[in-house]
Amino acid sequence: MNFDFTAEAPKLMMLLYGVIAFAAVVGLLLLVLDVLPARKDRWIALGLLAPAGLLLLVGLVVPAIRTMVLAFMNADSSEFVGLENFRWMFTDKNSGMLPDFSTTPVQYGVLLSTLLWVLLVPTVSTAVGLVYAVMVDRSRFESFAKSLVFMPMAISFVGAGIIWKFVYEYRQEGADQIGLLNQIVVWFGGTPQQWLLDGPWNTLFLIVVLVWIQAGFAMVVLSAAIKAIPADIVEAAHIDGVTPWQMFWRVTIPSIRPALVVVLVTISIGTLKVFDIVRTMTGGQFGTSVVANEMYTYSFRADEKGKGAALAVLLFLFVIPIVIYQVRLMRRRRLEGAR
Amino acid sequence: MASNRQRRLLAFSGAVVMALTVAACGGESDNTANDKLDTPECAAYKDYTGIAGETVTIYSPIRDAEAGLLEQAWKPFADCTGVKIEYEGSGEFEAQLKVRVEGGDAPDLAFIPQPGLLEFFAKGGKLKAAGDKTKTMATQNFSPDWLKYGTVNGTLYGAPLGANVKSFVWYSPSLFKEKGWTVPTTWDEMIQLSDKMVAAKIKPWCAGIGSQDATGWPATDWIEDVLLREQGPDVYDQWVTHAIPFNDPKIVAATDRVGSILKNENYVNGGIGGVKSIATTTFQDGGLPVVQKKCGMHRQASFYANQWPKGTKVAQDGDAFAFYLPPIDPAKGKPVLGGGEFVGAFSDSAAVQSVQTYLASPDFANSRAKLNNWISANKGLDVANVSNPIDKVAVGILQDSGAVFRFDGSDLMPAAVGANSFWKGMTNWINGTDTKATLDFIEGTWPK
């Protein structure tokens, strides 16, 4: 793989044009705003917001509305079918969304798996990150210990999926195990297992991967929050003869609550979108599928655009409460800050 | 107001730059690239004129080593005509092609291995009908049976490229020789042989159906092959077009017969594990125990020849070879299940049509076949250019007008079934779901 600049020249030129066009648009905008007469401030605000607003409209608002319309249409978007796609989702057992305990193996369903992800990943990641942050705080190896946990953050989800797929790899009993987990099991005298095959455990094994990635994020944010706790509070607590346990629950946790909430909310939203890990490791087979994976499968592989769009809308509905909570929190904090 | 002048200056320079950009954009149209069509070694390509300097992009599911061989095969053509072929292979071709086409980023040509997908794009008005030259080239070189699969509503959209014959069972000739086993010629003989292997403490069958997001497809091939043998091509066609339901008793019978092998703990999964290990083993790894002599037989297409480890001798007296999956009912003839890619065009420029025509020509078929491990249903393909013994057998089957040829059924069904629920259903079936529940599920997902 050698990078040939002459071969890439068209792309680089395109990039250059893009940058120049951007500068030109901004320049033109400023020029126009400058020569405009009266009520300048309002025009300037409008003019400066317009490019961002336009891009948001084209890239976010229009596709979102289009997806919502598609959710009420049939597979090839040629006619409206009302709530049919949602009826299919929640009543047709072939949709695989709801648990079905009559089958062998038991189908836990996409909704239940997704719920498991959303409940476990934010809480476990935050808990692990918090405990780790508290434990390494002001220790001698703090920065080294932190970078160890933070490093998985730098790996893409697909990369992490591939790595962990190898960790879970299975070879039959007696053969050389190439998966780390099974090798450990064999060392302790156990029989190798197919970790990714049987529900509901396989979903838990996938969840471990995301926790592994997100714990680093939680740890860094919470560690910074812990360091920001005013020294006088900590000192006062020490003078009052606080035990480490009391210190943690009565001083640290209340002081870093805003940071905790931000971490939980951010990871929750990220988890709802989880797709890469599931797709890389199991392809959504063996009952490990989640809403985002189903959405992609129906939209782009099965020619069922209506169902795919309906799944996207469902995902959107799941995210809304979290977003509302976060917005309200932010607003309240701004009010407190203003006081 | 001092900043006012500065701002005006900045704005002015911005506008000037934009004007320059527009001027620069219009300035490059003359192409200096030349073809070499007058040279003697390029005589074969003399008809492909006037495409020098053009670029044709190809998107395909063929990757890695096989992709390199494709590029090597059309290199003489590209060098002579001066056309630049940009090839890109993807492991998620089926899904990504749709994303790209819908996003307005369609490749010029795509090697589409699923007639259903080709039909989807053709009906959606995305594919361009094959040009006259391509059409002439295609009809000269391919049988109507094959062209039928590249034709939608009477219009030819793509000529076939490569082909594969799926009705093969791989085995280790040296192991067979060692144990005194012979290649079975009927289904019953094959089952008797399986029992002999069990008695000799060798698991007779191995399989793997893992294939990223396409996990499950090798099991669908099993069902198709057995159905074609039990019921013949007519029932097969009815099943593919949904003239009979997916959970028809005939399909149940065929699936159960496959189950008598794939879901039989005594028979599988040689060298890998139990029945369920079929679901987690990739199809690439599924047959490897054959050369390790830990597994007796592996049903997989001719293209599995590319999967054997380096140094494996693929020959009748070597480490790995394949026999034709024997018929069940002699009255149903010798059915052959197969597949192939079709070269569809999303653009109709002269260069794209030339490349499309060239890819349908015997020139290309022979050029690629010489590089090993590749065959085509192209009638102009000279068997002498095929070095691999298994490919020779396959070419013989493809060029024989007597055999009953049928395209891989899951590639012909609607994508909601053929590229989703059939795969998913078969994966669950391997993982323990019974035949009836599996087929009922797939029937329930057939688009109404």
Automatic annotation (TrEMBL), chain A:
GO biological process: any one?
Answer: transmembrane transport
Please state every residue range assigned to the domain named ABC transmembrane type-1: 111-328
Q: Which domain of life is it from?
A: Bacteria
User: Where in or outside the cell is it found?
Assistant: Cell membrane
Q: Which residues cross the membrane?
A: 12-36, 43-65, 115-136, 148-167, 204-226, 256-275, 308-327
Does the keyword section mention Glycoprotein?
A: no
How would you describe this protein's topology in the membrane?
Multi-pass membrane protein
The protein's matches in InterPro entries, at most eight in alphabetical order, are given as: ABC_transporter_permease, MetI-like, MetI-like_sf
Q: Which GO terms describe its cellular component?
A: plasma membrane
What keywords tag this UniProt record?
Answer: Cell membrane, Membrane, Transmembrane, Transmembrane helix, Transport
Q: Which PANTHER family match?
A: ABC TRANSPORTER PERMEASE PROTEIN, OSMOPROTECTIVE COMPOUNDS UPTAKE PERMEASE PROTEIN GGTC
- Family statement: Belongs to the binding-protein-dependent transport system permease family.
Q: What is this protein called?
A: Alpha-glucoside ABC transporter permease
Species whose genome carries this gene: Catellatospora methionotrophica
From TrEMBL, chain B:
Concerning its family, UniProt says: Belongs to the bacterial solute-binding protein 1 family.
Q: Which residues belong to the signal peptide in this entry?
A: 1-24
Q: Which UniProt keywords apply?
A: Signal, Transport
Q: Name one Pfam family in it.
A: SBP_bac_1
Q: Does the keyword Nucleotide-binding apply?
A: no
Keyword check for RNA-binding = no
UniProt gene name? aglE
Source superkingdom: Bacteria
InterPro entries given in the database record? Bact_solute-bd_prot1, SBP
User: What is the protein's given name?
Assistant: Alpha-glucoside ABC transporter substrate-binding protein
